[in-house]
Amino acid sequence: MASNPQRRAALVDAGVEVLAREGARGLTFRAVDGEAGVPVGTASNYFTGRDDLLRQIDVRLHERLAPDPAFVARLLEAPKDRSLITAFMHDLMDRAQRDRTGYLGLLEMRLEATRRPELRASYTKTVRGDLEDGMEFHRAAGLPGGDETVTILYLAMLGLILEHLTLPGVLDGVLPGVTVPDGLVDRIVTTIVPHPEP
User: Fold this and answer.
1) Please, are residues 57 and 119 in contact by the beta-carbon 8 Å criterion?
2) Across residues 127-150, what is the average pLDDT?
3) What is the average pLDDT score of the chain?
4) How far apart are the first and last CA of the chain?
5) Got the DSSP string for 44-94?
C-alpha cells in the first residue's frame, strides 16, 4: 500500500464527500479517485478494501467534527452552570452546520452499519465511546446534572441535528417564536438540564 500521508488524507476526505452525497452504495474507489481528482486506481493503492476505507472515514470524521480544544478551554473558564452547557450545545450545532458534509457522512455511516454487522460492531464501539467520553467530561467539569442529563442531551441534539441538516422545513415554525436551530438548542438545554440548587 502507498504511504503518502497527505494523499491518504485527501482520499479519505474525498471519501467523506462521496459518502455524504451518494451514500454508502456510491462509495467506490473510482468515485473517490474522481472526487479527489487523482488517476483511476489511486485509492486502491491506499486502502485494502471498502471496509478499510470506511474505518478510516470513521476516524477522520471524528477528527473533523471534534471541538476545538482551545475553545473548550476558554468556555470552561465560565461558571459551571446551565448557560455553559448551552454554550457547548451551540458549539456542537455550529460545528454540524460548518461541516454539514461531515455530519451527513456520519449519518450515512450509521445507515451502512445497519446493513453490515462488521461495521456495526466497530461503529457502535466508536459512538458509545463518544457518549461515555461526554459523560466523563460532564462529570470532570462539574456541570449540572449527571449521566442521565448527558444521555438525554445527546439524544435531543442528535435529533435536532438530523432534522436541521436533512429536512430543515420540518422544524420551521413548529414552536412559534422559537428560532431554528438556535432557539431550539436553548429550549433543549432548559428542558433537560436541572435548575441550579438554591
Assistant:
1) no
2) 96
3) 95
4) 61
5) GGT-SSHHHHHHHHHHHHHHHTSPPHHHHHHHTTS-SSHHHHHHHHHHHHH
